Amino acid sequence: MSPTYPGGKRFAFSVFDDTDVATLESIRPLYDVLDRLGIITTKSVWGIDHEGRSDYEGSETLDDAQYSQYVKSLHERGFEIGYHCATMQSATRTHIERSLTNYNKLLDKYPSIYAAHSTNKDNLYWGIDRFSLTLSKWLYLLLGGEREGYFQGHLPESEYFWGDLAKQHLEYARSFTFTNANLLKLNTPVVYRRKDTPWVKNWFVTSDAENVEEFNALIDSSCQNELEEQGGLCIISTHFGKGFVDNDIVNATTMKLLEELSKRDCWFAPVSDLLGFYVDRFGCHELSTTQLYRLELGWFFDSLKRRRRRKRYNPTEIAYLRKSMGKERNV
After folding, report:
1. In CATH, what class is 6-322?
2. Where are the domains of the chain?
3. Each residue of 4-32: pLDDT tens digit?
């Protein structure tokens, strides 16, 4: 049975936007559209610049004055600002503390929601440590995942440790992502706890759309119909920097689908609000061994399905990244 959402709305929708390859110019047109349509979501940030080469070079962080002021304006308009690690590459504790300070100075608070980024060594309980079951860990290694000890954000003896800071500030951390748009249809809780991850209070799952084409496929008209009919809860993890804006114009299909979505009987709110609503209705419990099997093995099967559904996109962000690399940084 689906819940009754705030305001009597029939379903709920939000987005967790991973900040990879985002610049002010590449994401501002889309966020201005979301704001105009009343689709309030969560945008993550990196707190500081990275010194050295990176696959994400040109992406902007809170060390950039114009970008950070736009992020602040989004926060003031009701958007949630999440945390996507300290920066685009591995960061030691000193850099993590500085990134959190940057965030706090800008927004007068610390981040409360987090998602690990790529292969950053400071990721919390990532790689093989994302799994608690022996079978899951074996499958992960079989598929070429990083071995135990690579990710160290939760290891007190490591220079990358920040678990205590995470426990102090963060309410939610993202774990697994799935192809299903309606998270209530998954055979697993949307928010949960694990006894073997003491530095994280609450884990949450989301749907997955790597880029603009996958996002458009996930919220097409038929998917929107299903969400509304099923009383669904939809939280999409995506990268608004990946192909959504070209020459300062939002992708035409994305624009059409967002306008359609905005007219439906939907509750739009930041991710943390949707998670808080879920916890109020269904609770947040420590998963049993059976539930962990369903979650972890379900994710493996879903990952195989996801590989067949991967969509290529036009990487329009490249021009914005080059432009950002060429300007003077405000550090």
Report:
1. alpha beta
2. 6-322
3. 899 999 999 999 999 999 999 999 999 99
